Amino acid sequence: MSTVALLRPRAAQDLPARLARSAAATGHGHQMRTEDVTGWLAERARAHRFTVRRAPLDRLDGWSFAPGTGDLVHSSGRFFSVRGLDVTLDEGPHRHWQQPVIHQPEVGILGMLAKEFDGVLHFLLQAKMEPGNPNLLQLSPTVQATRSNYQRVHEGAAVSYLEHFTDPARGRVLADSLQSEHGSWFYRKSNRNMLVEATDAHVPCQAGFRWLTLGQIGELLRLDNVVNMDSRTVLSCFPMSAPEPGALHSDTELLSWFTAERARHDVDARLMALGRVDGWTRDADGIGRIDGRFFRVTGVTVEAGNREVTGWSQPLIEPCGTGVAAFVFRRIGGVPHILVHAKTEAGHLDTIELAPTVQCVPANWAPERAEDRPPFLDLVLTAAEGHGAHYATVHSEEGGRFLNARIRYLFVPADEDEAPVDAPPGYHWATAGQLNSLTAHGHYVNVQARTLLACLNSGAVRL
Amino acid sequence: MSTVALLRPRAAQDLPARLARSAAATGHGHQMRTEDVTGWLAERARAHRFTVRRAPLDRLDGWSFAPGTGDLVHSSGRFFSVRGLDVTLDEGPHRHWQQPVIHQPEVGILGMLAKEFDGVLHFLLQAKMEPGNPNLLQLSPTVQATRSNYQRVHEGAAVSYLEHFTDPARGRVLADSLQSEHGSWFYRKSNRNMLVEATDAHVPCQAGFRWLTLGQIGELLRLDNVVNMDSRTVLSCFPMSAPEPGALHSDTELLSWFTAERARHDVDARLMALGRVDGWTRDADGIGRIDGRFFRVTGVTVEAGNREVTGWSQPLIEPCGTGVAAFVFRRIGGVPHILVHAKTEAGHLDTIELAPTVQCVPANWAPERAEDRPPFLDLVLTAAEGHGAHYATVHSEEGGRFLNARIRYLFVPADEDEAPVDAPPGYHWATAGQLNSLTAHGHYVNVQARTLLACLNSGAVRL
């Protein structure tokens, strides 16, 4: 048997150009105009009855505090649990603490289906209700499924389009990597981020789904709370391979700096009994810190018509205040560079990941001593107040686990005085192309940085 | 300030050619002939007094069994400890067991210094004694240092050439990634694998060190027990970028298969008290399984002249029998492909890594039912006995932690009947270039597969 016909190129040479063409396609796509998307979302919201009500943690159907540990668990043993986490770091102003954390050791699928119409790649997005979203309904990827979800623990309806991702050989995989979720709220959670091009002649567009170009998604990313977090993280993994004439640091130097940062940090994070977590108390409204900072664990009951099941209860994590996630950027040799931060987050699998220059909830830092405030925070807040940012949009984080978790995402220009080429320890300059190439692999770029990268990939912001 | 001069290319275009030139330089290098290296090693062994004696675990100076847990620990709290591990897998013939494991949460440096002589890259190797090596003295990388080591917990001599790796900006970093160690014997251990080119005009060659070309190292890799494991893993990370006309699976398909394998596995491995590990007993000779399989924890006392300190005691893990690690390979469309295995190992940070087609100690599998024997094991053993392998050399694993841990490394050719293009579940065909490119990142390629990759990178074997 001759096997020559089995060989294929190691990389699809035309893919970056095809993605760039889709990113340039704004205003309207094959199926609808961008300006009609929010109206369509509003219509979907009217057509389906969604009711989300707060509920005490001890009155959530199917959930209970486990005897002995006080962990908040589901009677099926599936979905997720809220447990305790004991954290010891080797540097920073706070080196030891305990907190509640979401434990969900299974890997979910976040999958975006792509298809070419009129020579331009379109992506299939879904109008999806999630109870924690401030506006409930946002644009999700084609498929957003926990393993429980697609193994039918809900015993609800099948997940639409799932077969394109569980059997990717029926199409063409364009990206597929395990990416981390929020390291402050999840214990070692990652999801499979997939971009799959359908090669079927016809892919039916079900109710509640729409084909949009990458450029249209970029336009929608300029609006608050429209493109959900799961869409944003998949978008960050699109293999854009933008040509760049060079960078301040070679790819190997960037990896070497990353390796040194990961090697020098010790993070000891251990699961513990939720009932024994120090500094947190449980009352009728949920579990919170005595000083009211960081977040609360709270509960909701949901009634919905178009979800996998018709009603359920669940705990959610509710942050105390709107966060900020900002990339400081500048041109170096004419090439835009962004300042990444090697950030330890207790829930990450392996010490550090690359985070935005600034990532915090400013209100959490107000009572602190000035010298403990995160670097570049004041530069970013000043730009946000004075309209000096190139991009400033509020997005919400995973509405299936977080309640009203809003973050203001920003790109803030800086000069040599504000952000020198010789970056401070723990910070490093990288090009957008360098950061994008790292999303082919897991555990390099954290979820907040990936939202900002999605804005670059889709053209929502140009530096 | 103009910043144009600060830009550099993202990748060093000439590096693959420079490495290929060094791999082609065989027979002799700038400093010595290949055939003289083993004589030089023997001379080093004669010149320095090394004595390694077995010793009972309760008579190791500075080591003791901790009260309560029975963990084997050093009085300094540093170096490493031997603890217990409780493992639950979701598939395979053995789904739950307990075992001793080495716990050493710090990241060490394995660093190879490179320098050009007469237009050809040479690498600085060291004749290094390690107590677990069957022949004690082997060729190590320039620097092989635990964090305790280079932070001087030993209070011994400084580590030679360390400054090239702790301050890589003084030279040029060619590779730098965190790579896993043995997943059956270590709990989540990784080391920083570094290749740094010295840009100093003159680098003094200290006694006990020699500059060798990559081709010379390849010649030495055809000999048993000469090039130590730490050298081999650094060699596997050399960025060779061999041009290949194509592959059976594109790079993205390979990553997608890897991601699916990692996502579908659940591995639950938890540290536990060594004293409570089930199925293992402690006697005068150490800690072993009741049925004598797998490995023992044993102890040695060392007297040496040229090590960081002049004498010490330590535990070592001693495997029961010589292992086998083999890549099955074949040409597909004229391009050599190797069959990689997505293997769960309990001590790995994240479920699976890519392993050789066959990796086991055959003696461990003899009493098993035939259907539980590892796939391809019989093909590999038949080739090994009948001289059908393209490469068959015994190397020893990390002599600082393992005693007489010999593995026979093999490349075994196969045809469509023996190893079909449509690989069985858990196996996948990859080119050498694809596997090599993954070593730029951590936790893709396990340490045994990296030894085989080192043989390809250095030209010890050609497929």
Automatic annotation (TrEMBL), chains A, B:
The organism encoding this protein is: Streptomyces aurantiacus
Q: Which GO terms describe its molecular function?
A: lyase activity
Cross-referenced InterPro entries, in alphabetical order?
EvaA-like (IPR005212), EvaA-like_sf (IPR038153)
Which Pfam families does this one have?
Hexose_dehydrat (PF03559)
Cite the Gene3D superfamilies for this sequence: EvaA sugar 2,3-dehydratase subunit (3.90.79.40)
Q: Please give the name of this protein.
A: NDP-hexose 2,3-dehydratase
Domain dTDP-4-dehydro-6-deoxy-alpha-D-glucopyranose 2,3-dehydratase residue range list: 35-237, 252-456
